[in-house]
Each structure stands twice: as structure tokens, then as C-alpha cells.
Amino acid sequence: MAFGLVSALLVIGLIGLAEEGPVLPEVPLGPSPLSPLSYGALSLYEIARSAYRATIVLTPKDMGEVSSSTCLYVVVSPTIPIGKDRADATVESLRRGCRRLSVLVADEETTSNGLLEALNSTIRVVGNRVMVPVGASPYHPKASLSVGDGTFTITLDLASEVVGGTTSGYTVGVAVEPSGGVRADSGSTPAARAVPVASEEVVSGVHIYVLGDGSVLLNQVLNSGDRVYREFARKLLDYLCAGDRECTVVLDARNYASANPFALLGGGAESREAVVSLMDTLYVVSAAVLAIAHPAVWLPPLLESADRFLRVAVFSPLSYAIVPLVALYFSRFFYYREALTRDKPLPEQMEKDVYIAADLRMSVLRGTVRIDAKDFVNLYDMVDAVMTALVGVRLSDDSLPGVLGRYVGSERALEYWKGMNRLYRRATRRSLWPPIVPWRRAVLKYLEESESVLNSLGESLSRAAELELLASLRG
Amino acid sequence: MGDFISRTHRLAPYLFVCVALATVGIFYERVLIPYSLALVSVAVLMRYYATLSASAISKVTATARARATTEVADVLVEFELRNNTRIPVLLGEYTLSYSPLLKIRGPAKAGLLFIPPSSTVRLVFSFSGRVGTYRVGPLRAVVRDPLGLFRSGEIEVYGTLDVKVLPAIEPAVVKRLWVATRRSGLIRTKQPGEGVEFYDVREYRPGDELRNVVWRLYASRGSLAVKEMEKESFQYVAFLIDSSREMWVGPPRQTPAEHFSRIVASISYYLCSRGYNVSAMVFNERGVSSSGRPSGGKDGLRRVYRTLLDLEYAEDSQGGVGLDSVVGRLVSLVPRERTLVFLFTRPVGQAREEFVVKLSDVLRSKNHILFLVTPLIVGYETSDAPAWARKLYQLKLYEILKEDLESIARLRARGVRAIAVDPSYVPQRVVRIIEELV
């Protein structure tokens, strides 16, 4: 019973899920705070959450709900350019919800400049690349970055020059355009100089810090084992939150694209950019498996296949004979699982009265009792006992008619006396006359007659037992 | 619970109809297939309902109470059934078992049971009163689904309850006993005669025993006087009632066992009110029950009544009555003082005759007196037959009557004082016959 109930609920749940439709998990691309991939920024979110309240904004509604005494809005290398409208709306939401606002932009492209413009900041990310003249990694300059009262020396990845504001970090190298580039060993190498890669300013009470490289805040860097990057990220957050424990770090996830896990597994350009490690691959695979496991994906095709099968298998001419036989065969397992009982009403209690001769009693009441000569002998003996007790004369005595005649008339008494004795002799075989006697009729007749005679004497045959007893006791 | 529910013979034709519908649906009219599936679903639901109902009724808590006084009032047995679950018992069927000698007056001994959820229902059964101990119960039930496709096993809702009913006292008889017992010596005679109680002092007459002379008076008066003792009466009376199966012959309330219990109750009531000590003993196939040594007053009467409640028709007992244990038990309970013992039994058969003779001899050796009161069973057997059939019935039972009379004659020949009664006798007749014998 429980199994059936659970099964039924399971089927209902599956159908409900299928009706809802699949929730295809999209894999966020780029430095999205939602992405655990190598190029994601989930680790930065976790660092922020470990010290402050951190929230990830997915929709304008989420942005509108941001409210705190101190807010730090963080943007890391957005892959979707922040347009003017969105930037204005973001800044307005933040100014409305936050008493004190700081902004951290870590970007090596110009996609964040729209936000800086909306903040009325003079800082801009140039969008070029700073190269190191010598060395095997020309795009990995070492930079000295000031964060508050601390200074960090970290290796940047693809860093861009940052102009405007107050420089708070620089590297020594050559700033070149991203499309071109000057090789370190080329003959026309320009001279290396101190290129600002970080800048900050306070505009209308908003503390803005811009770093020309978002890579230093990616998962693969923060989880690389080089603690300086985590310390740097943590220091940045502390600096920009100005020591407010109630600071809310807002990471915007709207600025990044996402991709279908199946597309990422397909091995295209998108895949090469997003899936760079084994862990990235496992994550994408698990997202794909979740998508496949949803009932909306497999249930409708399954039912369709079953329907096609049934159409072919059940409703084909051959199955008209096979299916009922198979159903009959399997039905017996369910039919015979239950014990069979012939359903009858519960037995009722029988009431009874105890009789020594119950069968005899029944036959007397039904009128089917057998009466023979022996019964006449018993009748004679009963009457004899009563007569003896009452009048002191036996029934066989010649003088009885005279005695009885005083009560019932002499003629009747004589006839009664003769009849009783004649039949008594016949019943005891002392005489063979009359030859044929219907004993039943004779006994019933003389039973009535005897009762009548005794009634005349003031007695009854039913008192025969008592009278006989008294006679025997006196005797 | 799956083993507890069984399918009935109706399920097979029901499923046959489902299959037939499905078959017709497959071959001809597709619209019938859903109907067939619906019918199968209904069967499944019925099975589920039967399980739920069986679970509910097996969790019913039942209490019972019996109200019984004397045999003239009905016996009421009330069952209170409480459904502790939220499942209604819609189609329960109950049946009540009880001693076969009881006659139910209402309601029906079997019927339908409906118990709403978390509710209590009462079943009150009324029986015609009969003297003795009777068993009422168990109360059993089964449940079915509305279509009768499945049925539970029998569930015992309540077990067995013993009901005890007292015999009725007949006030008119008690009044007449006052006269009868005076003459028979069952009470203090207030007459001079042989005895140990002082009665009076009178003048010496020739022939008086010298040991009765009051010498103190002779010394003071100078004339001879003798003390006169009160004629001795019996101070202790014991009643011994045979409650074995053959003493329950006859229609309800007219059996020898019930008749004798009424006699004993009436006489005991009178004797106890007059300060005599009485005791009672009841025996049947199940054993012996006694009120202990004779005692008087309300306590003695209460003990006698409690013993009379143990009268019982031992329907299912194997074997006969342990007569030797009866003798032993009676001898241990009878006091040293002279006791009048009434034995109510039918001494037919050698074992019974020997039992009576042995008891008589044992009691006589201890200076007690035994009176055998035996029912003429033919009278009891035919008492409720219609008038037109009674004489023929008695005629057919004449052999049994002769057997009873011969048995009495044999016992009298062996020194047993025997009295025979039938349903038309009343207790004062019993006492009058004693007078004739004494």
C-alpha cells in the first residue's frame, strides 16, 4: 500500500516537473561573480562574504533592493559594455540605497568607462596593454599598487593604462595598443616608463578605485596559492569599505554573457575561452547532466516512444490475441495474492432448550410420532396406576365398571373397561383378537377417553406420575 | 494487513466484467476501455477502503457492563464501542455469542455496525432473566467494502462477560412456610419433648427419669419436680443442588435446576429471618461451589444467594460430575450439630444412586439427616408442550417416568428419604411430603 502511494506521488511529481518545463542551467562566462570557472570571480565574492555582507546583482530589481550604510560596488572586466542608461540607473540605485558609496572597477578594457562617466569620474581605462620590454612574458608586468596605507607588488596579466584621478599604482613598461604590440627584442622598442595602472578619486562623495587589470581578481589567480593576491583583494575591500563592518559589497553579474553547457562541451571558441582546466570541464559536465536529468527533457520523448510502441504492439492484429493472454497471465499474481473467502453472514448464536427426548418432542409436535402396541401397554399401566391410587381397584378388576359407573355412567364405564382390557390383551399378545389393530388410532382414542374418565373422577393423566409415586410410597 | 483482508467470491465476476469490457473496447469500441479501467480502479479503491475499515475496527476500544438482578427482570448487557481513528466504520457486521440457554429479547443478536470517526456507539442487548451464571460474548465483527468485493477476517471487538442472575423469592411461599416449618420441626418448637434446650419445670410424674429431677427444688420445697426440655429442632440446614446438564431439562425458568434454586432461595430467606443457619452448595461438571459452613442472618443468606449465582449449564465441559469430591466437600462443611441436608438431584444411573446412598450413609453416621428431592423429569420435559400434545408426550416418556420411580423405590429401600417433585409443586408441598415421611 505504501509503495503504491509513493509511486503514485512520484509519477504526479514527474508530470508536474515536466509541465513546468526545463530549467536549463546556463554557465556564466567571463569574470562573473557567479562563475566558479577559472576565469570567473566567485572567489572574490567568497572573500567579500567572509568579511562583509555580499550580494550578487542579477536583475535591476536586485539593484534596487540594495540598501546599506556603506556600499562597495564592484565591477570586474565586464564582457558586456556598460551602456549609459544602465550606468545611470545603476548609479542612481546605489546613491539612493547607500549612504556612503565606493566603487571598484578592475578592467583592462574600456567596457567599464560608461560607469565611470556616469559617476562623473575623470578616471578612464585606456584599453591598451602594458608590456614589459624584456622577459619571456611580455604582458605580465609587475606593478606596485597602493591601497590605503599599504603597498602591494603584484604581477599583472593583461594590464591597461589608467588615466585620470590620482595614481595609486604603476608599473614600468611600454603601453601599446592591444592589436599591435612591440616585441621586447625588436629593434624599435620605445623606452619603458612608469605607466599608471591604478587610479582613484573621490567624486561627489563616491570613492572610486580603478585598476587596469581585472585578471588579478579572477578565481584562478586568487586560488593560485600566491597569497599576495588574496591579501590584495582583501585589502582593497577593506580600504573601500572604510572599515565599516556593515559594508555591503555588491557584485554585478549582469555584465557577463552565459552559455549552454552543451555548447561549451562542443569545443568551440567559446569553450576554449571558458573551459581551461579539468575542474572547469567537470563543472560544465555536471551542469549538462542536470539539464539532461530534468523530466521535461526525457519524459515527453519517453511517453511518445511508449505511445508509438503501444500503437504498433498493442493495436496491431497479432497483439489482439497476445496482449489479453499476457494480461491474464500476469493478473493471476495479483488476483491470487489475496486469500479467497466465501462471503457469508457471520454465524448467529443458536439458542436452545434442553430436552431429554428432543427428537421425540419434535415428532410429537409435528404429529409424525410413531405409535404402536407398546404405547398402548404404557397407557394401560398409567391408567391402572391412577385407578389403583384413586379408587383402590385395578383396571383389570371386574368390579371397576361398577365403580366407574357411578361417575361416568354404567354403559360407558363398561365399554371403556372392555375396550381397554381387550386391546391390552391384544397388545401383550395374550390374545390374537382383533387380528388387525390400527394402534395409532386406538392409542389416541383411548388416551382421550382415559383422560375424560379420569376427569370425571377429578383427576388427570398428567397427574399419573404423582399418583403413581404416592401409591408406591404408601405401598 | 494484507493477510487480514481477503477477496470474496464476488471479485471474480466483477473482474470478469472489467476484462470483458476491455476486450470489447479493444476490438470494437475504444470508448469502453476507460470504463473498464475505471471499474478496475474502483476495485482497487474498494480494497483500500476495506483495509482502512479493518484497521479502524481493530483499533476500536470496547467496554461492557451488565445489569442483572433476579430472574424476573431482564438482563441488560451494554457494549460501548469507541472508534479512536478518523476512519468511519461504515459497513461493519457484528454478531454476539452467548450461552445457548439465554433468550435474547432485543435487539438482534447480529446486525450491521456503523461507527463514525472519533465517536462512540452503544449496543444494548436485553435477555430474559434466568437463574445462574451465563456467558455473554464475545462480540465479533467483520467489515466489507461497499461493493462486497473484499472482506476482513473476524475481529473480536470484546471478549466474554459473565452475567449472574439471582432466583426470585416468592413471598406467598415464604408466608406459608411459616406454618409448614413449624409443624415439620425446622424451627424452634416451643414444645416439651426430647431435646437439650430447657423448656419448663413441672411436677414429678411416675416414669420420669430421675436424672431430670431438680434436686434444688426438692431441697427447698420438699416436693419432687423435673425439668422439661424443648422438643429438639434442626438448627442447621444445608441445601445441595445438582446443576449438571440433565437438571436443565425443560423450558426456560421451568427446569429442575431453576425450580430448585427458587425453592432454596425462598426457604433460606425464611430460615435466615428466623435465626437459623443455612448453607448451600452447587455442583456440576465444572466443579463445586459452596457458601461455606452454615451461617445465619443476612450474612448467611447473602452467602447462599452468592452460591446460587454459580448455577450454570456447563455446555462445553467434557466428562461427568466429580461425585466423590461433592461428598467430601459437603462432609467438611457440615457442622457437628445435627443438620438437615436437602439434596436436589435426579439419581438415575448406578453412579448417581450410589452417590446418594453413600452421602446418606455418611451423613447418617454423623447424626445428620439427608432428604433427596428428585425431579420427575417427565413433568419438566412436557411442561411447555401444548395441551393437545402433552398427554401423548407423557405417554411416550412413560418409560423414563417408570425409571425415575423405580430409582426412587430402590433408594427408599436402601434407607434414603426421597421426595419427588414436578413443576406443579411449590415449596410448601416439598415440606408437606417431608412431614408425611417423618
Task: Please give a quick description of this structure.
The complex is a heterodimer of chains A (475) and B (438). With 475 residues, chain A is an alpha/beta fold.
Walk me through this protein's architecture:
The complex is a heterodimer of chains A (475) and B (438). Chain A contains 18 helices and 15 strands. Chain A has 475 residues and is α/β, with parallel strands linked by helices. In chain A, strands 2, 3, 4, 6, 7, 8, 10, 11, 12 and 13 form a 10-stranded mixed sheet that branches. Chain A has a two-stranded antiparallel ribbon with strand order 1-14. The longest helix of chain A has 19 residues, at 2-20. In chain A, 36% of the residues are buried. Residues 181-186 of chain A have low confidence and may be disordered. Residues 433-438 of chain B have low confidence and may be disordered. In chain B, strands 14, 15, 16, 17, 18, 19 and 20 form a 7-stranded mixed sheet that branches. In chain B, strands 4, 6, 8, 10 and 11 form a 5-stranded antiparallel sheet that branches. Chain B is built from 12 helices and 20 strands. Chain B is an alpha+beta fold and 438 residues long. In chain B, α1 (11-27) packs antiparallel against α2, α5 (256-273) runs antiparallel to α6 (297-308) and α7 runs parallel beside α8. Chains A and B meet through α12, β15, α13, α14 and α17 of A and β1, α1, α2, β4 and β8 of B. β15 (339-341) of chain A pairs parallel with β1 (5-8) of chain B, so a sheet runs across the interface.
- Helix percent band of chain B: 25-40%
Distance between the termini of chain A: 84 Å
| Strand-residue proportion of chain B | 25-35%
Mean pLDDT of chain A: 84
Return the average pLDDT of chain B rounded to an integer.
84
Based on secondary structure, the structural category of chain B is: alpha+beta
Give the topology, please:
The complex is a heterodimer of chains A (475) and B (438).
Chain A: H1 2-20, E1 27-28, H2 42-51, E2 53-57, H3 60-64, E3 68-76, H4 84-97, E4 98-106, H5 113-118, E5 124-125, E6 129-131, E7 142-147, E8 150-155, E9 162-163, E10 166-176, E11 193-203, E12 206-211, H6 219-222, H7 227-241, E13 248-252, E14 258-259, H8 261-265, H9 269-274, H10 278-293, H11 295-313, H12 319-335, E15 339-341, H13 358-366, H14 373-391, H15 400-408, H16 410-427, H17 439-456, H18 464-474
Parallel strand pairs in A: 2-13, 3-4, 3-13, 4-12
Antiparallel strand pairs in A: 1-14, 5-9, 6-10, 7-8, 7-10, 10-11, 11-12
Chain B: E1 5-8, H1 11-27, H2 32-58, E2 61-67, E3 75-82, E4 89-98, E5 104-106, E6 110-115, E7 120-127, E8 132-143, E9 150-152, E10 155-158, E11 161-165, H3 171-184, E12 198-203, H4 215-221, E13 225-229, E14 236-242, H5 256-273, E15 277-284, E16 287-290, E17 295-296, H6 297-308, H7 323-333, E18 339-344, H8 350-365, E19 369-375, H9 377-382, H10 387-396, H11 398-413, E20 417-421, H12 427-437
Parallel strand pairs in B: 14-15, 14-18, 18-19, 19-20
Antiparallel strand pairs in B: 1-9, 2-3, 3-7, 4-6, 4-8, 5-7, 8-10, 8-11, 12-13, 15-16, 15-17
